[in-house]
UniProtKB/TrEMBL annotation:
Gene3D superfamilies: Nucleoside Triphosphate Pyrophosphohydrolase. Belongs to the Nudix hydrolase family. PROSITE patterns: NUDIX, NUDIX_BOX. It comes from Paramixta manurensis. Signal peptide: none annotated. This is Phosphatase NudJ. It holds the Pfam family NUDIX.
Length: 144
């Protein structure tokens, strides 16, 4: 039976920089947006806020929805990634609460897009979507 992994990710912006989390995957430092799996009994918005807090220590809610990304990883794992945007008035200290995250960085968008250590192609594509100015209201997402 086909069961894609449902994940959430947040493009967090402050002062023209985007928040990136760094984690070590198979001995290599990789960059990603604050992101993770949807857990039982939580909404997509709750998952996005939880992952942001766990991975960066920042407590905030997404402001808008950027879209859904479908991707199959090189190991054939299928993903559906729900992408959110969040604008902060200023760069906040980001301190990982999750042991899997090594550190957080506030970086210019182009540095992320051009990096060779991204967790997946979804990271750069998420920045491009954010740069395009596309924003959808959170009301598109309904939880029952």
């Amino acid at each position: 039976m086909f069961k894609p992994h449902a994940t959430v990710a947040c493009v967090v912006q402050a002062e023209g920089h985007l928040l990136i989390v760094e984690e070590t995957i198979r001995g290599v430092a990789t960059w990603n947006q604050p992101a993770g799996h949807l857990e039982a009994n939580e909404t997509l918005l709750q998952a996005a806020s939880r992952e942001l807090q766990e991975e960066t220590g920042i407590q905030a809610q997404p402001h808008s929805f950027l879209g859904v990304q479908q991707w199959t990883a090189p190991d054939a794992t299928p993903f559906l990634r729900f992408l959110f945007a969040l604008d902060l008035p200023e760069r906040q200290p980001a301190i990982p609460q999750d042991d899997d995250i090594d550190r957080c960085w506030w970086l210019p968008p182009e540095q992320i897009i051009n990096a060779d250590n991204l967790r997946s192609p979804l990271v750069a594509e998420s920045v491009r979507i954010w740069q395009s100015g596309v924003r959808y209201p959170l009301s598109l997402l309904q939880a029952f």
